[in-house]
Amino acid sequence: MKRKGATEYIDCPMCDCEIALSGDEKVGDEIYCPYCETPLKLKQTKDDELYLQEDF
Ligand SMILES: [Zn+2]
26-47: buried (b, 16+ CB within 10 Å) or exposed (e) per residue? Predict the structure, then answer.
């Protein structure tokens, strides 16, 4: 995940594009990739880093 200003971006695990987060998402939320339309679940590592995982 990279930070660009106030907006956070997370890489889609399916198509590797960057998905912009609004900042309102919480761990466990389901997000649809706007590019490949894969349902993704927002997860968090023990180091507090957010990542997305396919949620079919
Ligand atoms: Zn995608």
Answer: eeeeebebeeeebebebeeeee
Report pLDDT digits (tens) over 26-46.
999 999 999 999 999 999 999
Question: How many angstroms separate the alpha carbon of residue 5 from the centre of ligand 1?
Answer: 22
- Compute, in angstroms, the gap from residue 11 CA to the centroid of ligand 1: 8
Global pTM exceeds 0.70 = yes
Find the CATH number of the domain harbouring 16: 2.20.28
- Give the number of domains in the chain: 1
Domain carrying residue 38:
2-54
CA of 46 to the centre of ligand 1 (A): 24
